[in-house]
């Protein structure tokens, strides 16, 4: 009887999660998958085929857009890591008490504002008549107004800025758990700052680095607002293509196929990156 | 000052904002010595050790290792190694990689590193474990790996920061002997800090007792125990019964005292130059007190009294008797000899006690 009761309890506890997973994740994806397999052969006439997927591989524009999106996202991830690591190290290891809380909060505060507002903020800074352009003219570096928006550097800036928190938080958490005496022991045994970073700090922070990188990569790849607003019409971002298929072209079949390709290919990239760095998802999440 | 000291501190000080942790401490440690710094927590011993290791810069004074000043030498360039309180073994490396870390930093080639690591692990009794992860070792084995990791670098001075604190009692007793053995085997100068007097007394050649940032006394375990020069050392090293008394008559080497409770005692001046009318602190070791059931047995001792047994704290050879003095009503702890004479003592039994005047050390009562 008792086991029946505890079983019922378990079922009730799991029910919200199961319902959430089913209705919001599994069902839409199954629906999307079925739509993606439909090939339009005439008005309201469909056949089951992989033609939509073939379009992706046969049309260089789509292919290249995906490759460009993946490449830009990887670059954004690496840049975020390079900027985020020293910030996280400073917060976790070199500050204490109130300063630490304040700095951590300062990383967090920009995320209280919606992503849209933050991106518009960057547009105010970078546009032709914006703050940066005016300032450079004022101090005499530039002769006339310059448009800083609508290029890859602007997209990159936006992506790194948007992702920073998701890199800093896991890094601060793992670096916090690194015992200071390990670093001191490293110095005591004759290690240089570089060798201690390489042999002690980075191996310890690896789970944080991996989880931060996965989150940042996925967020960048799936980002829509930042590339469109800061990159303009020519941003050529893969999520932009999906949006076009669904909203502009009403071609839900191709849009669904693109959605699935994005899911599959990004998972493949994460998988390869984990293999290359010798990490496993279980090890990363388990710690 | 001997020129050949491995480690020498000259009036070394350290101040934090408005607090002076170490006040002009001077000492030197001859080569091959097991030197302990013993003190209660907060006495500045950790700060002193961290200054020697180079993690904290002294605010004043000089620090010399093998005659060379270390003031501007960063910790990774000093010929000292440190065994940390929680050992600080690198969990991300195998045991061999841990021990070889320092050699790798020196750019020794791989074959030699492997050889030296294996040799030093064998010396600490852990041959053939180099490829295993650190977590596969027990507490005592980790301790030995931490020492091996330092000793492989052949430092001039090995610093140990209460490394036995995290071990359980049995293992701690065992490691005390082992540490002493390792020290004489490697013949390296050890500087060991601890708050545990038994660790310091058992292992050390020289002990410095530290309190409030200064060395109260430096000497061998015996000197500290039998001839403490300050009241703090007398109270901190070993057990002692404490009294407060006023000097009635100050003779040559011996004093006539009157305690607060009005008991007359005879004692000796512990080198403080006590005069008539001075307030003193009087220390009597529990094992200096003789017990008897008959008054005649203790009649010839300088200080005598009688009382009743308050409780018997049985602990094998270290058993103690707490008795209540009939004259003053105060408690006194006495080492209980494990002879058949006292085996049946129980609470409430009358008992006579006494001790020699030269076991009664008197120190000037601090003002206030």
Automatic annotation (TrEMBL), chain A:
Taxonomic source organism: Sulfitobacter mediterraneus
Subcellular location: Cell membrane
Annotated membrane topology: Multi-pass membrane protein
Gene3D superfamilies documented for this protein: MetI-like
GO cellular component: plasma membrane
Span of domain ABC transmembrane type-1: 66-273
Transmembrane helix is among the record's keywords: yes
Keywords recorded for this protein, A-Z: Cell membrane, Membrane, Transmembrane, Transmembrane helix, Transport
Family per record: Belongs to the binding-protein-dependent transport system permease family. CysTW subfamily.
Domain of life: Bacteria
Stretches that traverse the bilayer: 7-27, 70-91, 103-125, 153-172, 208-230, 250-274
Any single GO BP term: transmembrane transport
Pfam families noted in UniProt: BPD_transp_1 (PF00528)
Record's protein name: Spermidine/putrescine ABC transporter permease
Keyword Transport on entry: yes
UniProtKB/TrEMBL annotation, chain B:
SMART domains: AAA
GO molecular function: ATP binding; ATP hydrolysis activity; transmembrane transporter activity
GO cellular component, one term: ATP-binding cassette (ABC) transporter complex
Domain ABC transporter: 7-237
Keyword presence, Nucleotide-binding: yes
Biological process (GO), any one: quaternary ammonium group transport
InterPro entries: AAA+_ATPase, ABC_SmlMolc_Importer, ABC_transporter-like_ATP-bd, ABC_transporter-like_CS, Mo/tungstate-bd_C_term_dom, P-loop_NTPase, Transp-assoc_OB_typ2
SUPFAM superfamilies, per the entry: MOP-like (SSF50331), P-loop containing nucleoside triphosphate hydrolases (SSF52540)
Alphabetized UniProt keyword annotations: ATP-binding, Nucleotide-binding, Transport
Protein known as: Spermidine/putrescine transport system ATP-binding protein
Organism: Sulfitobacter mediterraneus
